């Protein structure tokens, strides 16, 4: 018997789904980034942004959209890519424990000698590896389009932005994993994971409205990842550490919760 049967099964059965999410990531990047030379690099985009209300521009993070790094951040890493990877992370983590419990697979696997903590950590590892795949795909596509699309992004900053994207979306997934381990209900896990992502984005948008609200950035994982623009200035090490500490703590708490709760199937 394999030492990591749950991890191997997650990767085998989840490979096709991960490929689908990867195609979505590539499609979005191929749709948006090649447009930058025609609508961003010539100042046309910045002129349009200057006609919009300042509050809207700050909320959407469009204040730097006239640069290649700002355009890529505003369109992909801070918006569409953030929601695509969050959706994947939350869906996979909700299925990992709560979904498996609802369809009876969790109870069956535990009856065959797989320890509860081992099960959870293997399931979490399977999700994390698939998320890493999506972040790598995104980083490689941005790197490949960097010169053709005249983005002018330092390659090392693409790595930092991909790590920040991976961390902030993995955090939402880890919360879904914890709620799934506590409740055994997939809908609750989905709601918690999606809810923290939306709340985090909204708090960051509100915090951008006024210097008096700047303290709100400390409450938003989205701000931890992106308050320092990773594509323009490099990723903030403190924010990155906070994200991954949060992922580790939530995953460990999920393992404790699953160990102490009756699995009802």
What does the model show?
48% of the residues are buried. The two termini are 24 Å apart. The chain has one domain. The chain has 265 residues and is mainly alpha-helical. The protein contains twelve helices and no strands. It comes from Serinibacter salmoneus. The chain crosses the membrane at residues 18-36, 76-98, 119-144, 156-181, 188-207, 235-258. One of its GO terms (cellular component) is plasma membrane. Keywords: Membrane, Transmembrane, Transmembrane helix. This is ABC-2 type transport system permease protein.
Average pLDDT metric: 91
Shape: elongated
Number of helices: 12
Helix content percent band: over 70%
SSE order and pairing:
Blueprint: H1 5-32, H2 36-39, H3 44-50, H4 54-60, H5 68-102, H6 105-111, H7 116-146, H8 155-183, H9 186-207, H10 221-226, H11 230-233, H12 237-260
Helix pairs in contact: 1-5, 1-7, 5-7, 5-8, 5-9, 7-8, 7-12, 8-9, 8-12
